[in-house]
Design a protein that fits this description.
- The structure is a single chain.
- By secondary structure, the chain is of the alpha/beta class.
- The protein has 3 domains: about 1-100, no CATH class; about 120-185, no CATH class; about 190-335, Rossmann fold (3-Layer(aba) Sandwich), CATH 3.40.50.720.
- It is about 35% helix and about 25% strand.
- It contains 11 helices and 15 strands.
- The protein has helices at about 1-15, 55-70, 80-85, 105-115, 150-165, 200-205, 240-245, 260-270, 285-295, 300-305, 320-335, and strands at about 20-25, 35-40, 45-50, 75, 95-100, 120-125, 135-140, 145, 170-175, 175-185, 190, 210-215, 230-235, 250-255, 275-280.
- The strands form 3 sheets. The chain has a 5-stranded antiparallel beta sheet with strand order 3-2-1-5-4, with helices on both faces.
- The chain is elongated and about 70 Å long.
- The two termini are about 30 Å apart.
- About 40% of the residues are buried.
């Protein structure tokens, strides 16, 4: 979404006709996940991707046809089809792509959520009599947008689907198929300590789509000179800074200072919040001492067991840049739902 947001907004501002293509289903080795998007104009021009290049040409042709007849359409490409060879999907995957003339009122509401890093979910009928009808919900399940031809029963069913789904993908609504398409907040990586390894870690995490904040009461460590592109720098202790930044389902924490006065405050604050990842840069001996301090502070074994230390996937890293790679790899594994069995390893 964010990769195409600005360009589509520019097209709309220039009164260009825009179509939107969204991946609604994948099988096998299709290279783009459900919810991936591509924008197409009538000239034509395009932004984004639905298959990494395999079917884009065919999708553009269908989008142009949609400009002529005003109708949305569900496209299916698979290696068993003659068309699959023609469009180049020969790598063993199959995808379904929904192509629709862009509803700018819906898009504006969704774009506002995305630009502000807010959650939203769109439920769109992609196959059936109501094809193209849609609803947009915010994080509280409130309706921000709905098309005109939905009955109250359809609306309630679509709201229930949006509020109960855990990820983007297809669902059924009677005889119809609908796409539940989640606009999720960018993951927020909070680095405790502006230490040397934090410099490459911040740069790499930003490049792969994380919003990065740094917490360090030592202003000389966490400075704009050292971190010119970081989203936020807070020069306070973690027990004050973390509630200010917010700890939620999109927050990932890397504790890096080696200073108990700073690290312990971060852990005591963050562990009860049940965020998806907390990693600490330390040795086994240091961690035993940390565990004793955390227990003395009132944290139980179950919470303490959530700490990932030594932080990162074990790749034999030695340089700050290599250590940053192994930390970010473990965070991405956690974000993608991989099981993290033992410290230093993802399964």
């Amino acid at each position: 979404m964010l990769d195409i947001l600005d360009m589509i907004n520019d097209w709309i501002a220039a009164d260009r006709r825009v179509a939107l293509a969204t991946v609604v289903k994948t099988w096998g080795s299709a290279p783009r996940r459900e919810g991936s998007k591509m924008g197409i104009t009538a000239e034509p021009a395009m932004i984004g991707s639905v298959s990494g290049g395999c079917v884009e040409g065919a999708v553009v042709e269908e989008a142009l046809a949609g400009f002529r007849d005003g109708a949305p359409r569900l496209l299916k490409f698979g290696v068993a089809d003659d068309q699959a060879w023609e469009v180049g999907l020969t790598c063993g995957g199959s995808i379904e792509v929904f192509v629709e003339p862009l509803d700018t009122i819906w898009w504006d509401a969704l774009a506002e959520l995305a630009a502000g890093d807010h959650f939203g979910v769109t439920i769109t009928v992609v196959e059936g009599d109501l094809i193209g009808e849609k609803v947009l919900l915010d994080a509280r399940g409130e309706v921000l947008f709905q098309t005109d031809n939905l009955s109250q029963a359809h609306l309630e069913t679509m709201k229930a689907l949006g509020n109960s789904s855990k990820k983007s993908g297809l669902a059924t609504m009677g005889d119809a198929r609908v796409m539940v398409d989640m606009q999720v907040e960018r993951p927020h990586l909070i680095l405790i300590g502006g230490v040397h390894v934090a410099i490459p870690l911040e740069a790499m995490a930003t490049q792969v789509g994380f919003r990065v904040s740094i917490v360090d009461p030592r202003a000389a460590f966490a400075s704009r000179e050292r971190f010119p592109n970081v989203a936020q720098i807070l020069h306070s202790y973690p027990d004050k800074a973390l509630p200010q930044l917010g700890l939620d389902r999109s927050t990932y924490l890397a504790v890096l200072t080696h200073d108990p006065k700073i690290d312990d405050k971060a852990l005591i604050t963050a562990l009860p919040a049940n965020i998806p990842y907390i990693g600490v840069l330390s040795s086994g001996r240091t961690h035993k001492q940390r565990v004793a301090r955390l227990k003395e502070a009132g944290l139980g074994d179950e919470l303490i067991a959530r700490i990932r230390t030594p932080i990162g996937i074990d790749i034999g890293a030695t340089t700050p840049e290599e250590i940053a790679v192994c930390i970010l790899a473990e965070i991405i594994a956690a974000r993608n739902g991989l099981r993290l069995d033992t410290p230093g390893h993802a399964r």
